[in-house]
Amino acid sequence: VQEHGGEPIIPFSCALERNLADLPDDEAAKYCEENKIQSALPKIIKIGFSAINLIYFFTAGSDEVKCWQIRKQSKAPQAAGAIHTDFETGFICAEVMKFEDLKELGSEAAVKAGGKYKQEGKTYVVQDGDIIFFKFNVSGGGKK
């Protein structure tokens, strides 16, 4: 391993992963629990993302949560641009909460009440797993 850069090695079984993928989620979870095993896919994805310098962030509305991928060290306007170029062009600010805070506190309102909902500017470096609401303004009234 050290001869080849010392990168992580993740053992996995293609047959197991294929079988788990063919099962409904609840049956796959039960199978893993009964056999004291786990899928290697989450670890493969996480290490793979890290190896190619990617992170992800989330946007959420009342009816949808979406995951976006960006390069590590991307600033908030560039993250907004991953959604739409107009979001980057007209970037005002990013309202950010950490996934772990949302998980721990249970709701956006609780995160806000706990003082963990932050408004960030153009220099904010997006962190892996951030949940972001972008504010932007794109004026359509250009001169002719």
Automatic annotation (TrEMBL):
**What keywords tag this UniProt record?**
ATP-binding, Nucleotide-binding
Instruction: Give one GO term, molecular function aspect.
Output: ATP hydrolysis activity
Keyword Plastid: yes or no? no
Q: Where is the TGS domain?
A: 53-136
Protein name according to UniProt: TGS domain-containing protein
Reading the lineage from the top rank, the first entry is Eukaryota
| Stored InterPro entries | Beta-grasp_dom_sf, P-loop_NTPase, TGS, TGS-like, YchF_C
Which Pfam families does the UniProt record give? YchF-GTPase_C
Q: Name one GO cellular component term.
A: cytoplasm
Cited Gene3D superfamilies: 3.10.20.30, P-loop containing nucleotide triphosphate hydrolases
